[in-house]
Design a protein that fits this description.
The complex is a heterotrimer of chains A (about 300), B (about 250) and C (about 270).
Chain A (H helix, E strand, L loop, with lengths): L2 H9 L16 H13 L2 H25 L7 H30 L2 H7 L3 H37 L11 H26 L2 H26 L2 H5 L11 H7 L2 H7 L16 H26 L4
Helix pairs in contact in A: 2-6, 3-4, 3-6, 4-6, 4-7, 4-8, 6-7, 7-8, 7-12, 8-10, 11-12
Chain B lengths: L1 E10 L2 E11 L4 E5 L6 H8 L7 E6 L10 H4 E4 L11 H10 L5 H10 L15 H13 L5 E5 L7 H16 L3 E5 L3 H7 L2 E6 L2 E7 H7 L5 H9 L21
Parallel strand pairs in B: 3-7, 3-8, 5-6, 6-7
Antiparallel strand pairs in B: 1-2, 1-4, 8-9
Helix pairs in contact in B: 3-4, 6-7, 8-9
Chain C lengths: L12 H13 L3 H23 L8 H6 L2 H21 L3 H7 L4 H36 L12 H26 L2 H20 L4 H9 L11 H10 L6 H26 L4
Helix pairs in contact in C: 1-6, 2-4, 2-6, 4-6, 4-7, 4-8, 6-7, 7-8, 7-11, 8-9
The chains are: A mainly alpha (about 300), B alpha/beta (about 250), C mainly alpha (about 270).
C-alpha cells in the first residue's frame, strides 16, 4: 500500500476494519445451521409435520379400536397402520425442502453465500434428516399413544420392549425419516414443485397401486379366486416389481423378519427392505449433486 | 375519471386503506405518492376489483369496475410487472388478454410496436429483464385503448430513454382527455409529468392538490421536500445511514 | 382501432374461452402432461401382455383398461395446473382486470379441462388397444365390444373417469390455489387413503372407501370384476354408475366451493 492510500484508510474512522476470526466463510456446520433455520421457518414444514403426527395418532387409534374386539388382538400389530398414511406427510416435507430454494429464487443468495454447491446439498440433507428424525419420532410416539386406549380397554399393557414392538417402532421411524430424505432428493433433482411432487407421489404411492391394481383388472375374476398353481416359491412378476419399489421396500422395515412379506415376491426381510429403500434415497440425491456441480444454477 | 370515496380495506387486524377519498379527473395526470406500505397498490387493486373493499366505494366513470361492459376499453391497468406467466411469450400474453374482449391481433402488434418490444415479442416472458417486463406491463394496459389509465410505478427499472418515453406517453394521453393515475417514487420525474398529486400515508390521505401548490407549501421548494415533510410521520420502514444517523440526514 | 360500445358486453363466454385456450396452448406442460399420461397408461397394459399366456385368465378388456390408475394421475395434474395457473404465477391481476365478473373464467376453465382430459383419455384408450393388439393376439384374447360383459361400459368409463378426476384437480386447484397442496390432497384422497383403508377390511372402512372419489374406478371395471369388487366389500353396493355419481358429487362440490371462493374473496 502506498503512503497516500494508507493515510486515506486510517482517516476513514467511520468504516470498521474487518473483524479478525480464526475461520471465516461457509463451513459445513454453519451451512447446516443455515439450512436448518431455513427449513424450520418454512410454513409447509410445520404444516406437514403437524399433519404427519396427527394422522399417525388418528389412524393407529382407529385401527386399534376396530381390532380390539378380535380374539388375537396384539396392540403392537396396530402400530404400523398409523404410519402408512402419515409417511405422505414426511415425503411432502422433503420434496418442499428440496424445491424451496428454487421455487422462490432464494437459491441465488444461497449459492452466492456458499459457492461450493455440493456442500450446500450435503448440509441441506443433514438438516432435513434432523427435522425428519424429530417429526418421525413424534409420529411414532403418537402411534404408541394411539394404541394405548384400545389396549387399556382390554386390560392389556403395551409392551414396547418385548416381541416385535422394538423392531416395528424402529422400522416405522426409519421409514418416515427415509421418506423425508427421498422427497428431498427428488425435490433437489427436479427443482420445480409440480414435477417433483408428481414424481415423488407417483413413485411411492401411485405406481405400486397402479401396477398391482392394473394386473388385477386384467385378470378374469374366476382365475383370481382359484389357487395359484405353483407352490409358494413361485414368483409373480407384478408382486416382485412392487416389492423393490421404495414404498413396499420401506414398509417391509416395519414388519418382522418372520412375517414373510408379500406372496409371490422375494422376501427382502426388514434389513433387505431397508437397503433397497436406502438405494432409492441415494439415487436422486446423487443425481442432484451431479446436476449442481456440472450445470449453471439459474 | 376515477372516484374513490371513504374507501377502507382491512386484512384481519391490519388496516391497509383507511377512509380514503380522492378523485382523478380526465385530462390530468394524477400522481399517487406515499411511503412503501402506505396502501397505494392496495388502493389500485380495489379500484379495479381485484380485491373487495371492507367499506366505501371506488368507481370509474361512475361505475364499479365489475359493472363496466368492456373493462379493458375503459381502464388500462398496470400493477405488477411480474403478472406475466414466465413460460408464455410476450405476444401470447397480450393475445390472450386481447381475446377476452375480441381485440384484434393487429392491435396486439400495434401495442408491441408502441412499447418497443418487437424484437422480444416471441421470447418467453421469464427471460425478460426488468425494463422489458415493465414495457410489457404498459403494453397490456394500452391494449384496449382505454380512457383511464392506472399505472403502478411504470418507470421502475427503465433506462433514461424509457423514462422519457413514459413521460411523453402519459402527457399525450392526458392531453387527449384521458384520465391518468400513476404512482411513482421518482419525485423529480413526477414533478415533470403530473398535474396533481395525491399523497397517502398509513392508508390515509395526507394531501390532494395541484403539484405547484404542494411545492409552494414546502420549505425547500421541491416536490421531494414537500413529500418528505408531509409523510414524515407515516414512514413505515426507516433505514439508518452507515454512520448511524437517520436516513434523512439528521440525528435519530 | 377499437370502438367504445357503451352498454354492450364485450366480455362474452366464448371470448373468455378463447383467451383461456390461448393461455394454455402456449405452455409446454399442455403438451407434455397429456403425452406422458398416454405413454404411462399404455406402459402398464404393454407390460402385462408380456406376461399373459393363453388360458391364464387375462381378459382382453381388462388388459386394455389396466393403466387407468396411472392415467388418472396425469389428468389430475392437468386439472390442477389449469386451476392454479393464475395464482401460482401471479397472473390473476391480468386475468381478472379483463374479466372482473370472475366466474366466466372458472366456467371457461371447466370447459377447457374437460376437453383436454377427454382427448387425453380417449387417445390413451386407443393407444392401449393398439399397443396391446399383438400381445393379445398371441394370447388368443379377442376384444369384443358388443359383448354383454360390460366391456363397452368399461371403455366409456375409461374415458370419463380420468376426465372427472381432471375436474376434481381443477376444483382442488381453484379452492386451494397452491399446486403442491392440490396435488397432495388429490393423490391422498384418490389413492393413498383408499389403499390404507383397504389394508384394514371391515364394514366401516369399506363404507368410507365407497364414499371417496376413487370409487369411480368401478366404472372402468367389467361386470365380472365389478361383481367381485362389490362382493369383497362390506360397504354399500352402488354399482358402476352409482360409483360414478359419488365421484360426480365430489367434483360438483369442489367446483361450487371454488366458485364461492372466487366470487367472494380477493383474487390477488
Amino acid at each position: 500500500m502506498s503512503a497516500a492510500s494508507a493515510s486515506a484508510a486510517s482517516a476513514q474512522s467511520a468504516t470498521r476494519a474487518p473483524a479478525a476470526t480464526t475461520r471465516r466463510g461457509p463451513t459445513l456446520p454453519r451451512l447446516v445451521a443455515s439450512e436448518w433455520t431455513k427449513l424450520v421457518s418454512l410454513r409447509s414444514t410445520l404444516w406437514t409435520a403437524a399433519v404427519t403426527v396427527a394422522v399417525a395418532f388418528t389412524f393407529t387409534y382407529l385401527s386399534a379400536n376396530a381390532s380390539s374386539g378380535d380374539p388375537g388382538f396384539d396392540p403392537a400389530r396396530s402400530l404400523p397402520d398409523g404410519v402408512a398414511l402419515s409417511q405422505l406427510g414426511t415425503l411432502v416435507l422433503g420434496v418442499l425442502a428440496g424445491t424451496a430454494d428454487f421455487r422462490t429464487g432464494a437459491f441465488r443468495s444461497t449459492f452466492t453465500a456458499a459457492p461450493r454447491r455440493g456442500r450446500v446439498l450435503a448440509a441441506r440433507t443433514v438438516a432435513t434428516a434432523g427435522v425428519g428424525a424429530v417429526v418421525a419420532l413424534l409420529a411414532v410416539v403418537a402411534t404408541v399413544l394411539g394404541v394405548v386406549p384400545a389396549a387399556r380397554s382390554r386390560d392389556m399393557s403395551v409392551d414396547l420392549a418385548g416381541g416385535s414392538a422394538p423392531q416395528v417402532l424402529l422400522g416405522s421411524w426409519l421409514m418416515l425419516l427415509g421418506m423425508a430424505l427421498l422427497g428431498l432428493g427428488i425435490g433437489s433433482l427436479l427443482r420445480r414443485t409440480v414435477p417433483a411432487m408428481v414424481a415423488a407421489l407417483a413413485l411411492v404411492f401411485v405406481l405400486p397401486v397402479g401396477i398391482s391394481l392394473g394386473a388385477e383388472m386384467a385378470m378374469s375374476p374366476t382365475e383370481m379366486m382359484a389357487e395359484s398353481p405353483a407352490g409358494p416359491a413361485s414368483l409373480d412378476p407384478v408382486s416382485t416389481v412392487t416389492a423393490f419399489l421404495p414404498g413396499d421396500a420401506a414398509f417391509r422395515m416395519t414388519t418382522t423378519a418372520d412375517d414373510g412379506g408379500v406372496d409371490g415376491a422375494p422376501d427382502l426381510g426388514p434389513w433387505g427392505g431397508g437397503l433397497v429403500f436406502a438405494a432409492w434415497i441415494v439415487l436422486p440425491l446423487a443425481g442432484a449433486t451431479l446436476r449442481l456441480r456440472t450445470r449453471d444454477v439459474t | 375519471m376515477i372516484q374513490v370515496e371513504a374507501l377502507t380495506k382491512r386484512y384481519g387486524t391490519t388496516t391497509a386503506v383507511d377512509g380514503l377519498s380522492f378523485s382523478a379527473l380526465p385530462g390530468t395526470v394524477t400522481g399517487f405518492l406515499g411511503p412503501n406500505g402506505a396502501g397505494k397498490s392496495t388502493t389500485m387493486r380495489l379500484i379495479v376489483g381485484l380485491e373487495r373493499p371492507t367499506s366505501g366505494t371506488a368507481t370509474v366513470d361512475g361505475h364499479r369496475y365489475a359493472d363496466l361492459p368492456a373493462p379493458l376499453h375503459s381502464v388500462g391497468v398496470m400493477l405488477d410487472a411480474r403478472s406475466v406467466h414466465p413460460g408464455r411469450t410476450a405476444y401470447r400474453h397480450l393475445l390472450a388478454h386481447a381475446r377476452t374482449h375480441g381485440i384484434s391481433k393487429a392491435r396486439v402488434r400495434e401495442v408491441i410496436e408502441m412499447t418497443g418490444l418487437e424484437s422480444v415479442a416471441r421470447r418467453r416472458a421469464g427471460t425478460f429483464s426488468l425494463g422489458m417486463g415493465q414495457r410489457l406491463g404498459i403494453a397490456t394496459a394500452l391494449l384496449g385503448d382505454p380512457q383511464t389509465l392506472i399505472l403502478d410505478e411504470p418507470v421502475n427499472g427503465l433506462d433514461p430513454d424509457g423514462v422519457l418515453w413514459v413521460r411523453r406517453l402519459v402527457r399525450d394521453l392526458a392531453a387527449e382527455g384521458r384520465t391518468v393515475l400513476l404512482s411513482s417514487h421518482l419525485m423529480h420525474e413526477l414533478a415533470l409529468c403530473a398535474d396533481r398529486v395525491v399523497i397517502i400515508g398509513k392508508g390515509r390521505l395526507l394531501a390532494d392538490a395541484p403539484v405547484q401548490e404542494i411545492v409552494d407549501r414546502s420549505a425547500g421548494g421541491s416536490l421531494e421536500e414537500a413529500y418528505l415533510e408531509l409523510t414524515a410521520g407515516s414512514v413505515e420502514y426507516r433505514g439508518r445511514a452507515a454512520d448511524g444517523t437517520s436516513a434523512s440526514g439528521g440525528p435519530r | 382501432m377499437t370502438t367504445q360500445t357503451a352498454g354492450r358486453r364485450a366480455v362474452t363466454l366464448p371470448r373468455v374461452l378463447a383467451s383461456e385456450w390461448t393461455k394454455t396452448a402456449g405452455l409446454a406442460s399442455t403438451l407434455w402432461v397429456p403425452v406422458t399420461t398416454v405413454l404411462v397408461a399404455v406402459a402398464i397394459p404393454l407390460g402385462l401382455t408380456m406376461f399373459a399366456r393363453p388360458g391364464d385368465g387375462t381378459t382382453a378388456a381388462g388388459l386394455v383398461v389396466s393403466g387407468v390408475v396411472l392415467a388418472q394421475l396425469g389428468t389430475l395434474v392437468l386439472g390442477v395446473l389449469v386451476g392454479t395457473s393464475d395464482h401460482a404465477t401471479s397472473t390473476a391481476a391480468t386475468t381478472y382486470t379483463a374479466v372482473p365478473r370472475r366466474l366466466p373464467v372458472l366456467v371457461a376453465q371447466v370447459v377447457l379441462t374437460t376437453a383436454l382430459a377427454l382427448v387425453t383419455a380417449a387417445v390413451a384408450l386407443g393407444a392401449a388397444v393398439l399397443a396391446t393388439g399383438p400381445g393379445r393376439q398371441a394370447a388368443g384374447l379377442d376384444l369384443d365390444l358388443a359383448a354383454e360383459d360390460g366391456t363397452a361400459r368399461a371403455f366409456v368409463g375409461y374415458v370419463l373417469y380420468p376426465t372427472a378426476v381432471a375436474l376434481l384437480g381443477l376444483g382442488l386447484g381453484a379452492v386451494l390455489r397452491r399446486p403442491a397442496g392440490a396435488l397432495v390432497t388429490g393423490v391422498a384422497v384418490l389413492v393413498v387413503l383408499d389403499q390404507v383403508l383397504a389394508a384394514n377390511p371391515g364394514r366401516a372402512t369399506d363404507t368410507v372407501r365407497v364414499l371417496l372419489p376413487g370409487v369411480g374406478t368401478r366404472v372402468v371395471e367389467t361386470d365380472a370384476r365389478l361383481a367381485l369388487t362389490e362382493s369383497a366389500s362390506l360397504g354399500p353396493h352402488l354399482g358402476a354408475w352409482g360409483a360414478g355419481l359419488v365421484l360426480a358429487a365430489w367434483v360438483v362440490g369442489l367446483l361450487v366451493a371454488a366458485a364461492v371462493r372466487l366470487w367472494r374473496g380477493d383474487v390477488t
